[in-house]
Structures are given as structure tokens and as C-alpha cells.
Amino acid sequence: MSAPGDQLSLARTGARSGASPFLHLGFWVASLVAVVAVATLPFDSYAINVLMQASTFAVAVFGLCVVLGLCGQINLAQAAFFGFGAYAVALGTTGYHLDFWLCLGIGALFALAAGALLGMSTLRLGGHYLAMVTISFQQIVTLVMINAIGLTRGPDGIGNIGRPAGLQSSQSYLAFCVAALAVVGYLVWHLPDTRLGRAMRAVRDNELAAGVAGINVYRTKVIAFAMSALLGSLGGSLFAGGFTYVSPDQFSFAESIVFLTMALLGGAASPIGAVIGTSLLILIPEWLRFLKSLPGLYLAIYGLFVILIVRFMPDGIWGFVQMLAGGARRKAPAPLAVPPLRLEPAQAGGNYVLQVKGLRKYFGGLKAVDDVDINVRRGGVHALIGPNGSGKTTMLNVLSGLYKATGGQVLLDGVDITALSAHARTSAGLGRTFQNIRLFRSMTALENVVIGAARPGNVTIEGGASELMARALAALDFVGLGGRAHESVTRFSYGHQRLIEIARALAGNPTLLLLDEPAAGLNSSEKRDLHDLLKRIAAQGLTILIIDHDMTLVREAAQHITALNFGRRIADGDSVSVLQQPDVVAAYLGSA
Questions:
Q1: Cα–Cα distance between 476 and 507 in angstroms, integer?
Q2: What is the distance of C-alpha 490 from the center of its chain?
Q3: Spatial contact of 587 and 408, defined as CB atoms under 8 Å apart
Q4: 3-class SS shares of the chain: helix, strand, coil, % to 5
Q5: Residue 42 CB coordination number (10 Å)
Q6: Whose CA, among 241, 345, 467, 531, lies 20 to 30 Å from 283?
């Protein structure tokens, strides 16, 4: 029987779907063969220069695989970080006579710090604003390289750059660059299987759901941006040592566009795509050299190649290859036998798991939630009802930290969480689902639930990937989908996607589960199954606060109901009495 960690690798979609130990071994054998080949076969200086450029550029493009392909954040300043590494080696080895490796490390640290600072100051913007800021940063760096002559030696550049001891010949240095390309490529290839990589993929797919699942979205973005800068600097350092000359024009905004095009052309989600895209954009001009006497025709053909690939292969060349090979992928392994799901909600806060005191949320003059008090008893199902526009979902968004409260206090298990962010509230024990399903659509059902199981503070997880996997599989079994754990979530019906979202929340072992209209869009049999699921959850002692318009489900599942209308509480008590109160009937029907 395979270990849970092995099954996670097999579950992945993308470049490594179905990866096996033989594939890993094959990668390293192929890499060794490539290094030996470039070190021993006869290459002329022209071929060495082309291969040197391809290998060093590819390392920098790997950085875009992390920030853009994995995390979904745009970076149009990769050439600036490429330049940081190149100039660190150039200035260090020529002006200060420092060792190549020390200079490479200095450049990497400087780029890492610059990338993190740039990310911290801009990543809250996102979208085209982020693109504009990175373009501005790139232009500033280029201007400094050109005009700070005392530091960078200006437009004339720097020559006679040193190489590491023992790698003085161009061919031996090229072999070193290919080896570095293989090592970095393997690490980037493996990154999506790590907890950090899964967090990045979750942020790319759905930031809102990632935050509610316990991921610090902002920190994850900053780490991705810093890693991109680090890899850009590493590529630049290798480039400087390979060509022994650098100048500002090699690190301009145009080069950042080239890096981005390389990533998109090959497929930004995979380092294999990065290598393909980099090789093509370097080789196509060489293949078209005979047309350079006709620059207009040369540029037209070159541009046509790029446009056709981007137009007909939106996920890049490697993404297109994966799509064609999709039907030939190996069958997913049989489900692993795991112990039944065990829910162990915290019990530190007395009789009430949630206490809401005078909660208010105003949007300008609109009082969406107005001075609401709610006490949710531990271990039962508490329903929050009201007509459309009554403030129910706003209330849940305030409770889960997606909205900041205008006033009032929220206590979870006796702890004040009013000022906490969404991911911090999840760490404190809050789990939720959404009215509009929010799954990570590039992942399998199992990978979605693993994100939930990795919640910080989950006492049911002792450590490694095996425990995370077992917990996620148990949660899927609990909702009846364990046999389909390795399928992409896009292949599930609407009702089953809701169950996956609930399983993701349960895997994190929350203290309180918030369900936002879980019956919406379900047929009658699916609603009956949902009711049975709620009873099984409550039987394990987990408290549920549910919003739903299905009064039959509410009446049968909830022991206590709070009714809202126009943002204010109009009734609170046991289910039967609340549903019979005139104010509640009038709110739904218009009159008693």
C-alpha cells in the first residue's frame, strides 16, 4: 500500500501528474547526461554563447514560474533583479576583487531583500496597479545603472568579470550553468507539492477562500515575489560570469518583457515550460538570422510565431502538451484506508462557543448590521435567518474577518477575535463555507481539502505530509467522496463541490463552523443528504452556525434560531417559537 505522501504526488495536476520515483531518477540521469555532454563534446564559441544565454535566462524565468505561474502575481521587473545579480558579480570581482561565490551570495541577498520590500509595499494593490509599480521600479533601476557612473560605471558597462576557480574555461563554466539550471529547476518543479507551494496555488486560484482556509495571503504573495527576485538574481550572476561583460541595456524594461514572454510562451505554471519558452525565444532569432538583412520581414515572422503560440496555446506550449497527453495519464491510485474523521473542537470558552455583542457594520449610510447580539451555544446547530438583504451574509463576513466591524465585539471560545484578520480567525478555530462555492479549481478534491487540514492550530495534525494526507482523506470519506479524492474539482457536480468545501473546513478541525447557504442549488435528495451530514457533524460536538433560506432544513436541523431584518435582530430563541413569531412571519411574507 502506498504512503499518503506518495498519493499526494500522484494526485497533482500539471507537469508532475503521476510522478513516480522512476521519473525523478530519469530527471537526474538526463541532467547528468546533459552536464557531461556540454562539458566534453566539442562546441564552438557561438554555440557556447547561445547555450549560456539560454541556461542563465531560464533560471531567471523560473522566478516567474513561482510568482506568476504558482502565485498568480505579475512581475514586470525581473530584468532589474537579473541586473542586481549580474552587477554584484561584476562589481565585486573587478572593483573589489572578491570571490565569485561571495559576490553571488551578496547579489542574491540584495535581490531577496529588494524583492520582499517591493512586494510588501505593492502586493496589496494587485492587478494592473501591481504591474504599473513593477514597471516603475524597473525603469528606476535602469536609470540608476545608466547614470550612477561612480557606482555602475555607466553606459560603458563592466568587462573582465571573474569566474569561479576551476571554471575558467567557457565550456566548463557552461556545464556548471546547466547543472545549476537542473538543480533550480528541480526545486521549482517540486515546490507545488510543499505546504508553501500549495498555499501559493490556493492564492492564485481564490484569494478569498485561501484566507478563510487559514493561509496568510499577503505573506504568501511577498514570499513568492522575494523568491522570484532571488532566482532572477541567481540567473544574472551566472550570466555575468558566463559572458564576462555587462551593461545597463541588458537589464532594461524590454528584457523584463522578454522574460515574461518566455514564461507565457512555454507555460508559466511549469519549469519545463519555462525552459521551452526560453529556448524558443533565444533560438527563433538564430533560426531567422538569414532574414536579418530584411529587418521588417524578420520581425514580422518572429512576432507571428509568438502571436500564434499565445493565441492557440493560452496555457503555453507545455500546457498544450499536457492537454493532449491528458487522456494517457496513469490512473489514480486506489483510495487509502484511513481512520474515520475525528472532530475535536476546543472547549475552553464555557457554554457559548460564539458571543457577538453589539456588532455593527456600516457601509456609509447603510447599516447592514446594526447593533446585533448573538450567543451560540456549544455543540448544537444555530441558524441565522432573514429575508434577502437582511444582513446575514454581511454578518458572516464580519464574523470570519472578511469585513472589518464598524463596532461591537466578537468572542470565539472566550477569546476576543474582533481585530483579527481572516486567516488569524481561522487559526483561532473558525471554519466557513461560501454561498457561492469557492474551491481551488486547478487542484484535485484531495489537494483542496489538504489546504484546510494544514490550518495552523489544527490539533489533529502532529506534523508531516502523511498526517495531512490522512486527515484530508478522512474528511472526504466523511462527506462521502473519498473514492474520488484524486479527481479535479471541476469534474464534480455542484452538490458534490459543496461537500468538498465542507470537507475542507472540517479537515481543519474548527471550533465553530459557519455555513453560508449550504443548501442553495441542491435538489431534494441532496438536501436530505446535507441534513444527515449536519447531524453527523453535530454528533461529534462541533458547533454549527448556518444561514439558509430553506425553512424545512432550518426547522429540522437547528435547535436555536436568530432572525434578522434590515440588519437588526428581530427574534432569538428555539426554532419552533421563532418561526411562529409574527415579526419573523411578516419579514418573510410581508404580513402576519
A1: 9
A2: 18
A3: no
A4: 60, 10, 30
A5: 6
A6: 241
Q: Which residue has the cell 489546504?
A: 451
Sign of CA dihedral 404, 405, 406, 408: negative
Helix (H) or strand (E) holding 134: helix 127-147
Residues recorded for the chain: 592
- With contact defined as beta carbons under 8 Å apart, do 184 and 58 qualify? no
Please name every residue paired with 573 in a beta bridge, in sequence order, or none if there are none. 561
Cell 458534490, residue? 496
Fold of the 350-429+511-592 domain: Rossmann fold (3.40.50)
pLDDT at 17: 40
Measured between alpha carbons, how far is residue 47 from residues 41, 111, 179, 222, 243 in Å? 11, 30, 17, 38, 13
Alpha-carbon distance of 356 to 497, in angstroms, equals: 30
Alpha carbons 348 and 196: distance in angstroms, whole number: 31
Rounded CA separation 238/227 (Å): 17
Q: What is the DSSP string of 524-556?
A: HHHHHHHHHHHHHHHHTT-EEEEE-S-HHHHHH
How many CB atoms within 10 Å of residue 525?
9
Question: Tell me, what's the pLDDT at 299?
Answer: 67
Grid cell 434577502 — which residue? 388
Would the CA dihedral through 469, 471, 472, 478 be positive or negative? positive
Residue with cell 555587462: 246
Q: What is the dihedral of CA 31, 33, 38, 41, to 10 degrees?
A: -170
Domain residue spans of the chain? 31-265, 350-429+511-592, 438-510
CA angle 234, 185, 287 (to 5 degrees): 85
pLDDT at position 338, please? 82
Cα dist. 10→18, 232, 328, 349 in Å?
A: 4, 30, 14, 41
pLDDT in tens, 335-375: 567 889 999 888 877 889 999 999 999 999 899 999 999 99
Give the residues of the chain that fall short of pLDDT 70. Answer: 1-20, 290-296, 298-299, 302, 326-336, 463, 589, 591-592
Provide the angle, in degrees to the nearest 10, between the axes of the packed helices 316-325 and 295-312: 40
> What local confidence, expressed as pLDDT, does residue 11 receive?
34
Q: Which helix (H) or strand (E) is 373 found in, with range? A: strand 366-377
Let me know if 352 is exposed, middle or buried by CB neighbors in 10 A (0-12, 13-18, 19+).
Answer: middle
Neighbours of 149 (CB within 10 A): 11
- List, as one string, the DSSP characters of 408-474: EEEEETTEE-TT--HHHHHHHTEEE--SS----TTSBHHHHHHHHHT-TT-TT--SSHHHHHHHHHH
**pLDDT number for residue 369:** 95
**In sequence order, what are the beta bridge partners of 544?**
381, 513
Determine contact, residues 545/376, Cβ cutoff 8 Å.
Answer: yes
Cell of 95: 572593483
In terms of Cα–Cα distance, which of 417, 175, 139 is closest to 251?
A: 139
Q: What is the pLDDT of residue 49?
A: 94
Judge whether 260 and 58 are in contact, CB under 8 Å. no
Beginning with the edge strand found earlier in the chain, give each strand of the sheet holding 568-574 in spatial order: 430-432, 512-516, 543-547, 381-385, 560-565, 568-574
